[in-house]
Amino acid sequence: MAGERTLRLVVSYDGTGYAGFQRQKDAPSVQAALETALATVTGEPRVRVVAAGRTDAGVHALGQVVSFRTAGSIPTDRVGAALNGVLPPDIRVLDAAEVDQGFHARYRARRKVYQYNLLHGPVVPPFLRPYCLHAPARLDLDAMVRAGASLVGRHDFSAFRDAGGRPTSPVRTIYRLEWERVPVAGALPFGPGAGGRGDPVAPGPLAGDVLRLTVEGDGFLHHMVRVIVGTLLEVGRGRLEPQAVAVILSGRDRSRAGPTAPGHGLCLVSVAY
Amino acid sequence: MAGERTLRLVVSYDGTGYAGFQRQKDAPSVQAALETALATVTGEPRVRVVAAGRTDAGVHALGQVVSFRTAGSIPTDRVGAALNGVLPPDIRVLDAAEVDQGFHARYRARRKVYQYNLLHGPVVPPFLRPYCLHAPARLDLDAMVRAGASLVGRHDFSAFRDAGGRPTSPVRTIYRLEWERVPVAGALPFGPGAGGRGDPVAPGPLAGDVLRLTVEGDGFLHHMVRVIVGTLLEVGRGRLEPQAVAVILSGRDRSRAGPTAPGHGLCLVSVAY
């Protein structure tokens, strides 16, 4: 069509209120919210967006990438602000750009970065509750780091894939898998660190850590990051030896890996093309 | 009463879902949630709690302090976990301690620390939306710092008080009033900073700052921090000269100060006794 453009958006959302990215019959989805907003902004009744990663229910995004085609006349540099004017505030467009006609947010994605937060402390601060899995018991982070290292590289990840995704090859490459330890007090939107003289907030209850996993790969199977987290948690709790993870990987048997960690600790951080 | 104890709790809450601390007839309050949980935990039908600061609708707390008396037999060191087992997850008890019988969370408070977050950037990331006021226009932070300095000390703060609070003396002491600049990317529960190679999240949209005001005083009048923020914002936007704030203070006329900033950017960080 004459004048049709392909646009790429970088989108951030809090997944708490959504049944996932993908449009559902009877539940709110990020896709439906974006497409409704795009219909308003472009004047076209049916704009279909494609996402780099179809995040599950409760999963967040810092830098999800979506693409769509439009014959609408709105200038590209006004698309972001126009969408943010009509989107719910838990979905924000961070960037909008015109890309080549053949661009496809999913097929063209070369690398994705996901993060998963574990709240390792006695109490989950209310401000972090939607973004962390509470893991209060003692965790051997060194063992989790060693176990995770065996997943880096090009492997058949059948053991770390739940049923229900697309029927694709189970071979994926993980470029890096890193843990960092962020003090709880440093991860809050308000800061006891600035509390000053005789700081009366007992340090104990906020003295825990956010253990943040960053995984970068060329693509991820259904629930793959969450099964990795669930399995590394078994290692951290001493229920699995670190070296067992390499054995589970090579065995390709999902039933040997750990449980699927819940979605709300997970975030799609960025996508590279 | 024989065996009656006075207990002090440190409580954190996300104020988004509450009409404020204080019990209301037809709206959820933090007080009602705490008292309901205490009734369950102590076995006493009517436990009344007193808070150091009665935060308004939408206002958050990192280290609110409440006190109550109980004749219940639950050991003090189990009160926190027991309450967290029955409280909604947006209210968490961080600490519980037995204190002298005459302790009163409000009357005994000597200093309080509040913080207020301004999101100074083009887009409010969904994760910070409940905890920041969006202030996208250019702000002269230096002017705001200079204006704020004139409020430090012992003053009649009638110009920075809204009607509706307790009829108390308008004289208060502000010990410190400080601004800090926290990069938006560093204030998020997930980290583009860990994004690594060829970080594909456009830096621009997340390149803003959280401008965080910390105010410590011996007590605060009704809406006092919020009127201070609203007034300093007028300075930051160039609508008021920095030196005008000292004049407004000495004039004691509320109508000369700025508007009351919304509650959701505010947090009671800590209370000292």
Describe the fold and architecture.
Chain A has 273 residues and is of the alpha+beta class. Chain A has five helices and ten strands, in the order E-H-E-E-H-E-E-E-H-E-E-E-H-H-E. In chain A, strands 1, 2, 3, 4, 5, 6, 7, 8, 9 and 10 form a ten-stranded mixed beta sheet that branches. In chain A, helix 1 packs across helix 2 (76-86) and helix 3 crosses helix 4 (224-236). The longest helix of chain A is centred in the first third of the chain and has 13 residues, at 30-42. The radius of gyration of chain A is 20 Å and the shape is globular. The two termini of chain A are 26 Å apart. At the A-B interface, strand 1, strand 3, strand 4, strand 5 and strand 8 of A face strand 1, strand 3, strand 4, strand 5 and strand 8 of B.
SS elements, strand count of chain A: 10
Shape of chain A: globular
> Uncertain runs of chain A with pLDDT below 50, 5 residues or more?
194-203
Major β-sheet profile of chain A: 10 strands, mixed
Mean pLDDT of chain A: 92
For the terminal residues of chain A, how far apart are their CA atoms?
26 Å
Q: Biggest interface between protein chains, with counts per chain?
A: A-B, 62 and 63 residues
Radius of gyration of chain A: 20 Å
Structural class of chain A: alpha+beta
Oligomer: homodimer
Question: What proportion of the residues of chain A is helical, as a percent range?
Answer: 10-25%
Q: Total number of helical segments of chain A? A: 5
The string of secondary-structure elements of chain A, in order, is EHEEHEEEHEEEHHE
**Strand content bin of chain A:** 25-35%
